[in-house]
């Protein structure tokens, strides 16, 4: 299953685009920022972008994109690998042990909550594959990576299915597909997806998101 998780991750350029697309759609569909499932901060730190998945139930996935590479920190609060399930409340050995220093240092910001982790995946800019920390996972136990990586929706069909369940909305597949295919987000598109929202506010948020690639 671990290899499958790594194979399901596209290269960082495509992954960043996917996370921006999903964050854009969340901005349009959900005007309450705290309820958004996918978010993206273009200028998290100097030269660093941050994407986040937060299901509101205690589980999250944070992706940091930097010139040195990309790192993914995931936390499944129900996993037996959670630090809160350990006697010493410590991060399990192996999760961060092999991560290059220039990438693991990206997690040191207090807002990242580095120690809230059940798996870590990374890829240096010179790498051709993603890597995952070597952790002894007991049979039948999950680190949450399969579940949380599965919350990155690669197709407009998958996103629409998710939105129907999470936001209880039925966004137009045709319009969502346009956003997935880099079609410029216009006032018309916003109005189709979320009639009655403040289009000017949405466009201002999207401008911040799409400042640079």
Q: How is this fold's topology laid out?
A:
Layout: H1 2-7, H2 12-29, E1 38-45, E2 48-54, E3 60-66, E4 69-75, H3 101-104, E5 119-124, E6 131-132, H4 145-149, H5 156-166, H6 173-180, H7 187-193, H8 199-209
Antiparallel strand pairs: 1-2, 2-3, 3-4, 4-5, 5-6
Helix pairs in contact: 2-8, 5-6
Question: How would you classify the helix and strand content by structural class?
Answer: alpha+beta
**Topology as H/E string?**
HHEEEEHEEHHHHH
Largest sheet strand order: 1-2-3-4-5-6
Global mean pLDDT: 93
**What can be said about the biggest beta sheet?**
6 strands, antiparallel
Query: Any idea what the shape is?
Result: globular
Which range does the strand content fall in? 15-25%
The tally of helices reads 8
Helical amount = 25-40%
Specify the oligomeric state: single chain
Distance between the termini: 32 Å
- Domain count, please report it: 1
Q: In summary, what is this structure?
A:
33% of the residues lie in helices and 17% in strands.
Considering the chains and any ligands shown, give keywords for the structure.
single chain, 213 residues, alpha+beta, six-stranded antiparallel sheet, 6 strands
């Amino acid at each position: 299953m671990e290899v499958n998780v790594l194979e399901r991750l596209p290269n960082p350029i495509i992954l960043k685009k996917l996370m921006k697309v999903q964050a854009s759609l969340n901005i349009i569909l959900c005007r309450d920022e705290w309820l958004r499932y996918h978010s993206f901060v273009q200028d998290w730190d100097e030269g660093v972008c941050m994407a986040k998945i937060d299901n509101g139930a205690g589980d999250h996935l944070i992706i940091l994109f930097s010139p040195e590479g990309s790192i993914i920190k995931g936390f499944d609060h129900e996993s037996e690998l959670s630090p809160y399930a350990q006697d010493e409340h410590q991060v399990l050995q192996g999760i961060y042990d092999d991560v290059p220093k220039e990438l693991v240092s990206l997690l040191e910001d207090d807002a990242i909550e580095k120690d809230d982790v059940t798996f870590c995946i990374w890829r240096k800019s010179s790498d051709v594959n993603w890597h995952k920390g070597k952790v002894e996972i007991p049979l039948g136990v999950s680190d949450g990576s399969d579940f949380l990586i599965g919350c990155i929706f690669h197709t407009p069909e998958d996103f629409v299915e998710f939105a129907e369940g999470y936001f209880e909305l039925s966004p137009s597949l045709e319009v969502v597909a346009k956003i997935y295919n880099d079609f410029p987000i216009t006032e018309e598109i916003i109005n189709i997806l979320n009639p009655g929202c403040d289009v000017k506010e949405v466009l201002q948020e999207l401008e911040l998101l799409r400042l640079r690639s």
